[in-house]
Structure formats: C-alpha cells, structure tokens
Amino acid sequence: MKLDLLSLTHLELKEQIKGKGIAGYIADQLYHWLYRAYQIDPEKWTNISKANRDLLFESFSLHLPQVIWQGLSKDGTRKFLLKMQDGQTVEAVALPGRNRLSICLSSQVGCAVGCRFCHTGTQGLKRHLSTAEVVGQYVAVTHWLQTQVNSELKFSNIVYMGQGEPLHNFENVKKATEIFVEPKGIGLGQRRITLSTSGLVPQIKRLHEFPPINFAISLHSAHNDARTALMPINKVYNLEKLFQAIQTIPLKAHRRITYEYLLIDDFNDRPEDIIALAKLLKRSESKINIIPFNEYPGAIYKRPSDEKIAWFCHQLNDRGFTCTVRTTKGEDILAACGQLKSEYDKVNLWQEDQQLKVLSEKKKSQFSFT
After folding, report:
1. Which of 79, 131, 184, 316 could bond to 321 as cystine, CB 3.0-4.6 Å?
2. Structural domains in the chain plus CATH codes
3. pLDDT per residue over 49-66, tens digit each?
C-alpha cells in the first residue's frame, strides 16, 4: 500500500525517499510545493525531474479531500464540506479576523463524546481521520481559496475545534501538528495552533508529547452535576480528575490554559456559577473564553441575551480573571462553534430560514471574504 505524502513528517519523508534511491534534498522540494506553493499538480513541480516524480509515485500517493460544497456567511466566514476517499465527509471553516485568517479543522468523522449542546455530537462517531486527512483539510481549503478567491490568501492560525475530539485521535492529530509547525513546510508558530479538548484525562496527561501549542479545555460549568448534564464524559472524568490532569500540562512561560465556557440561557449563567468558577480556576494560569450558545435546528438550549453575556463576563473580570467573549461567526451557515455536522442539505434549509428572518426585519448584509 502506498504512503500518502501528506501523512509524512519532513524527517519521515526524507528517510523514505532516500530508501527508494532518491536524493534526500527532494524532500525539501516536495515540502515546498505542498506546503509553501500549495501546488497539488505534480506536473508543475518544475525543479523535480520527471524521472524522480515517476519514482516517487511508485511508492507514494497524494490524495486531497474534495471540496463538494462551500458556503459564505454574511460575516465573511466560509464553511467547507470535504469528502474523503471513502465517501465520508467532514467540515472545515475559514474564519477571518483582524490581522489573521484561521482555519478550524476536524479530527474525526462525527464524535463519540456526545456533548448535549453540540450538533456534531448527534452524529455519533464514524471513524478517526488519518494524519493525511487532517493535513489535507488545510491544504485543500488553502488551494481552493487561492484559486477561487485570492492567490495571496494563507492561514495564519489553526484551531482544532471542528468535528470530533482531537485527543481521541491522539496520534494522528499529534503528527499533523508536527507537520504544521515544520519550518521547511507551513512553518506555523506554536502559539498559532490551539487544540480544544472535552477533557480526556489519560490523553491530557500525554500532552507533553505534543509540540508546545496552545490548549483549551471545554469546561462549561464548575458544577459536576451541570457539567455532566452537558457533557457525559464528566461521568468518567469529573472536575476533580480533570483538574488533576490539567496540572500535568507543560506550560511555557507566560502561557495560560483557555477555559471555554458555553453560556446557556437559564442554565449556567447564574451568580452561583460565577462564584464556583472563581473558586475552581487559578487567575494566573487561566483565561476564560465565553461562548454564547449557537442555536441549530433541534437544539434544546437557548442563547442568553447580550446584556446577560456582558454581565457574566464583567463579573469574572471584576474578580481578577482574564475573560473574553468569543465573537459568533458563521451562524447563518451553521459554521459557528457546536454547529458542524457534515450536512449541507440542512445548512441550506437553515440559511433560507435565516434569510427570511433577515428580510422580515429589513436588515442588509454585505457578503465578502477579506
């Protein structure tokens, strides 16, 4: 069986091609074409001879996920539905921000964790993504944007916050991260990659094996009963076990753990929730990111009012915490946090419903990608 080029770290690729009788420097050239030029047509790898290309593809393959649908939000967010070789699909999201362009990557087809607030959780777990499929999302979306929107577009940041639990697919996500930070390829800085986990304690204790990227914990409540109601994983790894594991995460100087807190109307937005959070977290090592609940078809929870969201964050800031509110992006195309589910038919229906609401309120939007 042929190895996919996108599955190999630079060192692995160099060793593999030298074993095939090809000069090791060809690995540098391949990494340039794949991860600097985003050129996926081998015929255009002009500094690699045809003889060497033929030798390469006797042992290696190159398979990119196929973009089968993409949607543009009124805020500039783009969601991509990507089909793998076996027909399974995942979603990735391009998130424009001030002085940055981030990509939200998926790590699994579906998810086994089953968080009650998450659209992906209703899908169940179908399988892990391979290293090549994780990396392939990045390459495929970059290639699409450069050929369809702007040839200069490149991602400055990666967030593992798409479909799936990244630490459930530990080895493949770890290896993909090593490829993303490789200086001869994409060369992203470690601070520009963030991995979010629901709290798989055994894997958290292994995070020292990862490159020292940023880590985020899906917390959502400082009360075990409420967190269990939202996240069944808390039955196995409750707050006590979770925070014992968090203490083992190697933090570089001036780094903090981000605690994601999904704010749900009349559920975890009370004064007692603020008090419990303040007792649970260490101010010097914590950053709290408030995520207002993003509604989706069939959701049982509701988003709090803007006033309630601002009050909750202000109360934590007053207690000495660094607290921010995540800007909701791509909600009109089901691309916001917790809304991904590999289904573009429901996305279209949701878009139509949202567009009718916008028209009825006589609001105007500008559609652009910057």
Report:
1. 316
2. 3-61 (1.10.150.530), 66-352 (3.20.20.70)
3. 999 999 999 999 999 999
91 is catalytic: yes
What are 45-53's contacts with CB under 8 Å, separation 24+? 52/22, 52/26
For 128-142, how does the pLDDT look when each residue is reduced to its tens digit (9 = 90+)? Answer: 999 999 999 999 999
Is 259 in contact with 288 (CB distance < 8 Å)? yes
- In the three-class reduction of DSSP (H, G, I as helix; E, B as strand; rest coil), residue 204 is classed as helix
Q: What percent of the chain has pLDDT over 90?
A: 79
Query: pLDDT band at residue 343, thresholds of 50, 70 and 90?
Result: low
From the candidates 115, 313, 337, 343, give the one annotated as an active-site residue: 337
118 tagged catalytic: no
Output the CA angle 118-119-122, nearest 5 degrees: 100
pTM of the predicted model, to two decimals? 0.87
Considering the candidates 91, 165, 182, 295, report the single residue annotated as catalytic: 91
